[in-house]
Amino acid sequence: MKNVAVIGYGVVGSGTVELFEKNRESINQKVGRDCDIKYIVDLRDFPGDPFEDRMVKDFNVVLEDSEIEVVAEVIGGIEPAFTFTKKALESGKSVVTSNKALVAAKGAELLKIAHEHNVNYLFEASVGGGIPIIRPINKCLAGNTIEQISGILNGTTNFILTKMIREQMDFDAALKMAQELGYAEADPTADVEGEDACRKICILGSLAYGKHIYPEDVHCSGITRITLDDVAYAENAGYAIKLIGSVKAVEDGKVTAIVCPRLVSKSNLLATVDGVYNAISVTGDGVGDVLFYGQGAGKLPTASAVVGDIIDCLKHPDRSIMISWEDNTDKSYVVKYKTVENAMYVRIQADNADQLKPAISEMFGKLTYIERAGRPDNELAFITPTMVENVIDEKLAELSHSAEIKSKIRLL
Amino acid sequence: MKNVAVIGYGVVGSGTVELFEKNRESINQKVGRDCDIKYIVDLRDFPGDPFEDRMVKDFNVVLEDSEIEVVAEVIGGIEPAFTFTKKALESGKSVVTSNKALVAAKGAELLKIAHEHNVNYLFEASVGGGIPIIRPINKCLAGNTIEQISGILNGTTNFILTKMIREQMDFDAALKMAQELGYAEADPTADVEGEDACRKICILGSLAYGKHIYPEDVHCSGITRITLDDVAYAENAGYAIKLIGSVKAVEDGKVTAIVCPRLVSKSNLLATVDGVYNAISVTGDGVGDVLFYGQGAGKLPTASAVVGDIIDCLKHPDRSIMISWEDNTDKSYVVKYKTVENAMYVRIQADNADQLKPAISEMFGKLTYIERAGRPDNELAFITPTMVENVIDEKLAELSHSAEIKSKIRLL
User: Fold this and answer.
1) pLDDT digits (tens, 9 = 90+) for A139-190
2) Which of A70, A94, A323, A331 could form a disulfide with A120 if both were Cys (CB 3.0 to 4.6 A apart)?
3) Angle ∠(A313,A318,A320) on CA atoms, nearest 5
4) Domain assignment present for B324
5) Which residues on neighbouring strands pair with residue B246, listed in sequence order?
6) Residue of chain B with shortest Cα separation from A283
7) A130 at the B interface (CB within 8 A)?
């Protein structure tokens, strides 16, 4: 049966078709019946493409074809993906996707529609590319209360930070290299400002805690202001700087969620994750810490997850697999990040900075000064004790009368 | 409904009951109905145990109770576990297990029985303790052709090797410490000789390649003969010695599978996995390399996987989830390990060993001599090129006329 349609023939879409066709024989064995891709929907022409005969421009062809059971939406972005997805689910077709923007914005709503129509909305590819993470959290770790999830969720920024750490390349040079290698887009904002990672941690938090976490409720800061000086101080003190998305259960059924650069101790496996690789650490009350590692983006790795979801839908043709979370209108569900405790790396500039040490030590109590080779007289760096961030800010405001606060990076 | 029974109240059994009861409210939400543990079957008495009222000694009580939907078999070993499992499946109850010995010996048979009775036989806990690995391979990576799986599958041996590498403790002292800490049993044979890891790689290989791989067809060597000298040479050359179970597709639809110590390059994440932790690397033609890491044993981590499987069965009360592989009677399916290519670390002893270098170099072609601090005159260590193991053996047999072969360890 030709029962699959792929919507969007870009990088992930073409990878999905390629991988499905390559492994079709074993896929059909796993599904237990003959399945294939019938349509590839894209507004563009692909003359000479080996699958040209399956190309259509009108999504309605898919909608109106009752043979189609599964639609792989790999367009990205909110529209027209949202409308297509909704219509497909409402017409009794399962939808699988790599579209993190859409899942983060509309996941609860689309999951509800899927259940109402006894079909599936699956999105293993939306977080961590090919790394299995949605099913493991939803199924394998279902017996746990999830204590926290934190991860390197964006390969572009991890590539840039790796170049800064390993080769002392500055941010602009590393970004340029990432763009030349095709790891970063011409407009790199969504990656370097942490927006992409934010969508992913929202999806993981929604899944783990059962309530939709919206990106606009999550504080997000990127890596554009990290300097090689910060990298050097971190390195010297046994840390690597990584862009980390994290979500954690706190009191009263609420959560904290934040995306920001962090100093990660080198004894933590996350600190050893280099280049475009992603890794996600999950802590459960039964399992302890588990970590998932792999290529978080790219044509075939992402296609791997899309095709895995297609197979799962084809294996459950008349059944809604219970992935679900509630919608959430409570703006206090994600607690304000300034009320959360963190230890903080701080770098300041002041004339004869060392003379400020007694005042700083009195301000923060027990803190740790850290060094870098060639630290100038007018610079000082330290790591605060773990304190509520508002309190750290108050103290730094006081310190700013006698010094310029150059960097503030949270510890993991 | 009291629809779950736990068979065996040892470490994993008591952890399963503890975790299930602790998270019962959220488990019931996930299942979508009220579920609980009705029976705990064990021949022993547990006076004063908080769940004493659920204890029964006779497994038939479970079998004959139609309310029981899921049986968690956490006895371990082949019998009576096999008989209990078979009877439970035949009477229409799903079975979940942490019993790697049973799955490795009888997996194909029990999966067949489960399908015939439209129930499930799930075993996420049988490999890697709480680490999600069975479902990820079976579902998330289903779109891939699996190229290889290799992993640190036994926490006891990894603890011992870590002590040898990090603290220069010798094997006997490290084993004694592992026993004192409860990581190794009084009779450590199954761990240190690699048998436990062997069962696990058989399960992963059966799942990934669709045909049962029996432990007796897999060459298995343990870590008892590794010396601190070997550790030092490896360290010096940029490797860590790890006990690795691996399975790989080769030509003609056959596989190679082996458990043995290996020199693992420190650039490989597996080399950084220390202590009782496990990690499993999977390579697929779509996803590339992914790695799964966590606690591979222990009461609650293993219970985490058992409870996850219980939940999955409770969510699919009238459905056999299609995990399956064929039985296999072809003794040539796992190719002879001596016909497989490896690079090999070799340590020899001979008077004035350095004088043998020209002869050895001629024998092997381009090889690498490696050093350790304080290498005595009568010792030499080298890494061979990648060659069929039979050929390496022939050359070493020749070399053994002029030197004693003290160690042979494959590279990963």
Assistant:
1) 999 999 999 999 999 999 999 999 999 999 999 999 999 999 888 888 999 9
2) A94
3) 65
4) no
5) B150, B258
6) B294
7) yes
Q: How far is CA A60 from CA A368, B110, B343, in A?
A: 63, 46, 57
Does residue A328 sit at the B interface (CB-CB below 8 Å)? no
Q: Is residue B329 part of a domain?
A: no
Render A155-168 in DSSP notation, one character per residue: HHHHHHHHHHHHH-
- DSSP E strands in B271-376: the ranges are 277-284, 288-295, 341-342, 344-349, 368-370
CATH of the domain at B396: 3.30.70.1150
Q: pLDDT tens digit string along A335-358?
A: 999 999 999 999 999 998 999 999
Q: Is B295 helix (H, G, I), strand (E, B) or coil?
A: strand
- The beta-strand segments (E) located in A74-115 are 94-97
Q: Look at residues B85, B275, B264 and name the one whose alpha carbon lies nearest to residue B166.
A: B275
CB contact under 8 Å between A294 and B289, yes or no, is yes
The model's pTM is: 0.95
A354 shares a domain with A277: no
Sign of the alpha-carbon torsion through A387, A390, A393, A397: negative
3 state SS of A146: strand
Report the alpha-carbon distance of residue B269 to residue B120 in Å, rounded. Answer: 34
Marked catalytic residue, from A100, A200, A211, A408: A200
Q: Which two tokens stand for residue B65?
A: 């109770």
What is the predicted pLDDT for the residue at B318? 75
Provide the number of structural domains found in chain A.
3
| Domain membership of residue B233 as a residue range | 134-293
Say whether both A126 and A208 belong to one domain. Answer: no
Interatomic CA distance for residues A374 and B21, integer angstroms: 57
Name the closest residue on chain A to residue B20, using Cα atoms.
Answer: A143
CA distance B69 to B72: 10
B348 beta partners? B380, B405
Is residue A200 annotated as part of the catalytic site, yes or no?
yes
User: Which candidate from B135, B286, B298 shows the least CB-CB separation from A303?
Assistant: B286
Residue A170 is part of a domain; what is its CATH number? 3.30.360.10
CB atoms within 10 A of CB A297: 22
Give CA–CA dist B169/A333, Å, rounded.
51
CB contact under 8 A, B140 and A308: yes
B144: in domain: yes
